[in-house]
Design a protein that fits this description.
Length: about 100
């Protein structure tokens, strides 16, 4: 395994208390993304290239390229529930 590269630890995937991604709340994920977004801008202001930031943080280059052009982290857009989702019928039942 000496020829394999080790991926950097995703700050959102793991927390210091050992919780995994499935057990992290949306608010915590948002805070992690906000921290990552701020770090991207900090490195970019220091003169790092998009490719170097992506490599250093272990994040897709396209995401970094998009983020350096934004002033703030974009809000998550929720899609409509699928036709087969029970969420689609929430509130339509009269009990």
């Amino acid at each position: 395994m000496s020829g394999r590269r080790q991926r950097p630890v995703d700050p959102i995937a793991q927390r210091h208390d050992g919780a995994d991604r499935a057990n992290i709340s949306r608010g915590d994920k948002r805070k992690g993304l906000q921290h990552l977004f701020a770090r991207v801008h900090e490195l970019f202001r220091e003169g790092w290239s998009v490719a170097d930031i992506a490599r250093h943080l272990g994040v897709n280059r396209r995401r970094i390229d998009k983020w350096v052009r934004l002033e703030a982290l974009p809000e998550r857009v929720e899609s409509d529930p699928k036709l087969t989702s029970p969420m689609r019928f929430r509130g339509s039942c009269n009990s």
